[in-house]
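## retry 2 of 3
previous attempt timed out at serialization; input unchanged, resubmitting
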Amino acid sequence: YEKICSSNSPDKLYEILSEMVDALFEANNQAYYWELKKYILEHYPQDDVFLENIRQIFDAYERELYYPCLCGLFPIIERLLSDSEDPHMKRFDRLLEKKEKSISENISDNEENRLYLQNLSGFISYVSKTSSFSDTEPEGANRHWFLHGRTNRVVKQSDCSKIFLAIQALLELLKDETNI
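## retry succeeded, writing output
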């Protein structure tokens, strides 16, 4: 695992992750999706008004409306990263950095948790990386390109699945941080 992560570019790691997620969902005939949905709905803060938005996002996914699903998922990650102590922080990379530090301080010294956090942080950084629209569009689903309407690609089911997995992982790590 460490060898794969250290010897590949972010683009290659995204490609490897994409293939793994596609295989996971295909091999389980979407059964994994239903487990993922259940986990997210059970572990997302029940008093948050975004919970209804999450239900609508799942509905879009199940109707195979992947573009609106994906566009709805990015703000969910941002909401989970946001900090009630500094609610006006707007830079996504700073939100991620601050939340990563907070989680890191509160999770156990278990090496698996640390690798999990690094991997999740790298993935979120990759899909949220801001770049000039005159540059080449990133390979995978990119928050900046999608939410500003600049993408030239069709959203696939696996694009949404990856973000659902990231939300599940973030909720799992936040459980240790805040006892959600």
